[in-house]
Every structure is written in C-alpha cells, then in structure tokens.
Amino acid sequence: MSMEEEIRQLVLSMDGVATVYAADPLWLTTVKRLGLLLEQGTAELAHFVVCSGGIEEFPLVDTTATGDGTGALTIRTRIGTDGSLPAPATARAVADAIRVFATENYPFLSVKAIVEVSTIGV
Fold first, then answer.
1. What does residue 103 show for φ and ψ, rounded to 5 degrees?
2. For residue 53, what pLDDT is reported?
3. How many other CB atoms are found less than 10 A from the CB of residue 66?
4. Strand intervals (E) in 10-108
5. CA distance 65 to 50
6. What is the DSSP string of 37-51?
7. What is this structure's pTM?
8. Taking the alpha carbons of 104, 106, 108, 114 in that order, is the dihedral positive or negative?
9. Which of 47, 3, 54 is nearest to 25 (CA)?
10. Neighbour tally for 69: CB within 10 Å
11. For 77-95, how does the pLDDT look when each residue is reduced to its tens digit (9 = 90+)?
12. What is the DSSP letter of 101?
C-alpha cells in the first residue's frame, strides 16, 4: 500500500470525517486526466492524497533538501465532514494525525499537512 493510500485510510478512520475527496479541484483533475489521456492513452484515477517535496521513493514526490540536510514533505487532502464535530476541529485533528503518521515513518522529513474541508450542498 502506498503512503498516499495509507494516509487516506487513516483520514477515513477519524471521527468527524465522512469522505475523502480528490485533493485537486475538479478543474485541475480534469486537466491532468486529459493530459494523461493525450500523452499515454489512459487517464488514471484522481489522487485523494497528494504528497510533494520529500524523498524519491514516492512516485509523486521530488527530493527537496532544506538547509539542514533534511527533506520537506507537503501532504494535501480534501475531506467531507459528517457534522458530528465542528469542521475546523476535524480539519485540525486530521492535519495533526497526518503529521504524526508521516513523522513517525519518515523522521528526517519536515512535514506540512494541508487539509481542506469541502461542502457539497444538495
């Protein structure tokens, strides 16, 4: 299981989280898929967790060294809440859990977690 999928499962298991949406906005996901379709003839699924910066072993991650010789990793996701907890508190808890997960697995990386809360009204 990839790091992105592990983080997605972690986020889905948290109180207050109803779903995990694609990390990129719909327009950007569409443009990326169109580019892949034209380039490779196939459009892959949307990424629910996007990791950037960091270490080479992740397919979506480039190595970025900070001044102290460690890497920096940014993890971005978008969640939908179920209303059982306030959305800002849920987003903070998710960001904290992501930082703990990434720091435990990759202690040499500086981790920045970005959690967006999306609302879809009917």
1. -70, -40
2. 62
3. 11
4. 17-21, 49-53, 71-81
5. 19
6. HHHHS--PPPPSEEE
7. 0.72
8. negative
9. 47
10. 7
11. 999 999 899 999 999 999 9
12. H
